[in-house]
Amino acid sequence: MSKTTGSTAERMPADTPATNRKVIALAIAGAFGGFLFGFDSSVINGAVEAIQGEFDLSEAVTGFAVASALLGAASGAFLGGRIADRYGRIPVMLIGAIVFFASSVGSGLAFGVVDLIVWRVVGGIGIGLASVVAPAYIAEISPRQMRGRLGSLQQLSITIGIFAALLSDAVFAASAGGASEMFWFGLEAWRWMFLIAVIPAVVYAVIALLLPESPRFLVLHGKEEKAREVLHRVWPNGDVDRELRDMKASIEDDVTAKRTGSLRGPVFGLKPIVWVGIILSVFQQFVGINVIFYYSTTLWSAVGFEESSSLTISVATSVTNILVTLVAIALVDRIGRRPILLSGSIGMTVSLATMAVAFSQSVTIDGELTLPGAWGPIALVAANVFVISFGASWGPVVWVLLGEIFPNSIRAKALGLAAAAQWVANFLITVTFPSMSSWSLPLTYGMYALFAGLSFLFVLTKVPETNGMSLDEANTLLPHKNAAKATKPAKPRS
After folding, report:
1. N-to-C CA span, the chain
2. 14-211+257-482: what fold?
3. How far is CA 139 from CA 157, 211, 218, in A?
């Protein structure tokens, strides 16, 4: 067979152990922002009841305090793409580290709920920045044959961050005798749950200072010699000249096609592929996954578990999330993105529907919600099946797709818009859960089950398969042209 001229990713260096180690190390470092993302967004789980008691908050205000970080995350994601396109991926990481640090100190020393909300919003900006820059950076330094697995490291880092946050919450609460009890230096344990985040924030800043800039960003901004240096470091066995030629040709193609950085298109003002990214992000949140990680301690306490037991259940759930994310990483480049998403949608729909049925059997005894008989264990199992279904599919795979479906010229901005939509959706789910759950838990989980079912139909009809394609091939896809043929991974060209 004749050789093709190929694209950037097709001329990636040979799949040698040395090359793999270098790329994997860079991807892991780039994904550390996901750790802070998971830690900062979930650390409030163990502090919810203590904060509610400390500041005498209603359910609605409690929900807003928990969700306030997500407003900042939407802003950070929206701005992060633009900052990343103008100044680079590394500066965005550094800004994220700084605001994470400031938020952890401010939240830990908050003197009132308004103060706490302000610092949570600041932390949310860091979350939003990290949610944009990590998948973009990883996609741009990864060879095609490893891009799915390396892209999944973002979600793995998020799940590890969630686990670390919940574990530290449990340790502080257990050491102090409760989240509201005094601990070191006369500060309550819940305050130390926030303050401990200064450590990973500093680590993230150090990592950002050591990472090379994305070669694609450098080429986009005419810094070819710097891009050449990075490529020599990342892909020492590759044909660097050819890589650079292909990157430049891809950029020229974007210009020729009038895709010079604008998100505008014929579908409600945006390009169709941008809408695919936005809707994928919204569905990822509308299934209610973060209710499990933001409110699980409160939820299990409400159905009869002690605070210590509830924290232990939350930690165990986060461990499950990590393990199933590893499964997704192992499979995403083997069986493709679409099959994983479709199977995940089915599992989420069934488990959420089961939780809705279980909570429809709840009774209130002495003002406390209780699940009688076997319904408590059934709800607990269903919740973990839901986490497994999400963690092995929609959690990591959506981030992989967001990193690879957009054209080079709009990748950071489109990712920023999709991530902002994700955080707005996350905010809506998080802020409404306390009020909705106090009104009807069965209806709440039934609504999440409905969205899970709709996510199956969306993937089936609109989401293209990008497995086995170079980054430049993947981001030329249009959803309506690929829905029918996307059931099989694309074969590499020879």
Report:
1. 7
2. Growth Hormone; Chain: A; (1.20.1250)
3. 15, 15, 15
